[in-house]
Amino acid sequence: MNWNNGIQILIYLVVLVLAVKPLGIFMAYIYEGRPAGLNVWFGPFERWIYRVCGVKVEAGMTWKEYAVALMIFNVLGIVVVYAIQRLQVFLPLNPMGMAAVTPDSSFNTAVSFASNTNWQGYGGESTMSYLTQMLALTVQNFVSAATGMAVLVALIRGFVQKQTKTLGNFWVDLVRSTLYILIPLSLVLAVALVTQGTPQTFNSSATATLVQPMKDSAGKPVTEQVIALGPVASQLAIKQLGTNGGGFFNANSAHPYENPTPLSNFLEMLSILLIPAALCYTFGFMVRDRRQGWALLAAMLVIFIPCLLWSVQIEQQANPLLARLGVDQSATQFQPGGNMEGKEARFGIASSSIWSVATASASNGSVNSMHDSFMPLGGMLPMWLIELGEVIFGGVGSGLYGLIAFVIVAVFIAGLMIGRTPEYLGKKIEAYEMKMASLVALIPHVFILLPTALAVLIPAGKTGILNPGAHGFSEILYAFTSAAGNNGSAFAGLSANTPFYNIALGLGMFFCRFWLIIPMLAIAGSLSSKKIVPVSAGTLPTHTPLFVFFLAMVVLIVGALTFFPALALGPIVEHLMLNGA
Amino acid sequence: MWREQIRPALMIFIVLTVITGVIYPLVVTGVSQVFFHKQANGSLVYSSEGIVIGSTLIGQNFDDPKYFWGRLSATTPVYNAAASSGSNLGPSNPALVDAVKVRIAALKAVDAGNQAPVPVDLVTASASGLDPHLSLAGVYYQLARIARVRNMSEVIIRQVIDQNTSGRFLGLVGEPVVNVLKVNLALDRLKI
Known about the structure:
The complex is a heterodimer.
Chain A: H1 3-32, H2 38-41, H3 43-53, H4 63-87, H5 103-114, H6 124-127, H7 130-160, H8 170-196, E1 206-215, E2 221-227, H9 232-241, H10 262-286, H11 290-315, H12 320-323, E3 327-328, H13 350-361, H14 376-387, H15 398-418, E4 423-424, E5 427-428, H16 431-457, H17 459-462, H18 470-484, H19 499-528, H20 545-580
Antiparallel strand pairs in A: 1-2, 4-5
Chain B: H1 6-35, H2 37-40, E1 44-46, E2 52-55, H3 94-109, E3 118-119, E4 133-135, H4 136-150, H5 154-163, E5 165-166, E6 177-179, H6 180-190
Antiparallel strand pairs in B: 1-2, 4-6, 5-6
Helix pairs in contact in B: 4-5
């Protein structure tokens, strides 16, 4: 690895970790209702919202009420996003005259954005009107992220409270997450991106006269270039911060308008992990033991950092098939070299590889390079990180509550090993919690492996493949992995905008979002009603390096063992064939 | 249990839609249009007659020997800024090898004497299909050809390249690159 690649990784990690504490404390203050600037200034507005909407702030919700409120709100979101896409041709702010989106694609996109997945079966700039991008997609970017954060906060209350039935109020958690955390950060990021060159306009596309006229593939002269524009920056900011990932343009953050410079790339990449990382601190702060928060962050980094190093290492290698043609793939002071197919020149190898690992870890799913064109193992890495359950950072809120499910599994296993009743943060972990945690850990596995098996058996699944051989299998496996992990990135060669894929992936996204949220809330409700056991000599400490390492191993073993056979059929065999040929 | 949540659900949905889907994008648009007008409207480039001839952030196709060529583009037609896309060809796909072969042959056809190995970004497709940049290696590979076709000294062309090169952020992050459209326009302005 050349020194600059190492420096870029180091800078990224240092800036990220430095941001964890201040943002973490701020979010804890917001959720606990303590004065923290913004919530003082906008407090009257917040209370006005509750009054107008008929929210009884003081009335807590049991876990079932919390789940019901959450489901009504999210299903409503799905219906509205579906309707806006179907009707966009009749609605305003459609300067390019985009037609109504097909029913199956509309369903897929509605579930995709409501479940914080942001898988895109469609091409943004060629499908969606400005109104759809703003009123349907941007709104879901905010509220799906806020939903994940609300569930996490409810779970934290489950640990903090004793012998209490209620978990707080979903509407309050939702509004506070949006108003005080997501909107302010997005405003700052959006304006910062505009300074770098990201458009933010309601004008229709620009038309440029080409400097050098050319001919298209049919031989017809082309003298003009239509340049798609729009309110890009505002959607881009929240898509990065809310671990959404659904871009304004088809090429996502690889598009020079979405990501014009190395600085914009750094800010966007930082935003991917910012809130998920800081929520670890918020967790530690709210359970009144900050070491617990740092321990969870450490467990994430134990898996994340080696993946970063490995990914850069793989992509920096030359493709042997191109080396044979005499192509210069070496890293010099004049070029990054390495595997540049599907990568942008301004990002080169380091910024593209770091992004691929961050976006897969974080359930973000935005891309600044095409994962389909990565080296076989370089493309396997993001796929495998998603398969770990999106708990290495993971989605905002959802990553941390997912990791806490793995903590429950870990303390249970540890409890069996030392022969004591497992407990975490003073709460006894019993059969009920263990069953729910197992559901959270295992449901995504079912929704990845079974549909992949189905898709490779039927013509509707196989016709979408672009790349031949083992790589084609990887494309399908990646698609269902991405849906089940609520990630949204893709091996984009797969033509997935078909009824089969739109519906199969849509169902995967829906169940892997809400069938995990409901058991997590059940755990929260059960924990909340328990006593707090005082710490004794027999308590397993959960903030030590030993436990951090143990937790990381549990995550790795559950994820790695399940998916090793499938990965062996795809990227691993492709790697062996590419280097052995 | 679910009935009393319907009104809050509808009302909160409407309020949050207005805040995040209308007010937020309008505020960002207002600030951007006032303070960063050029960037907010796509960093467009105008000719001396005032017509739009491109954007500094959106690449254009060049295959005339007198221009620097940029990255390959997988959009249809190439450099279609209304439908961005990468090739998505996998590393072991024979179609990738064929595309690279065709590109190398095209480069050699206009510069037969050049025996240097071709830099990788000059023969591979970008992720967006609209990459406006090329590595310095990719530009230097074409330097002798441009000088010969345009009958200009390499020293002057190097100056033009330097003027249109952007470095790493803080010298560390990202990669140094040359803006292909800007460098070609600058050459045209020097000498037709």
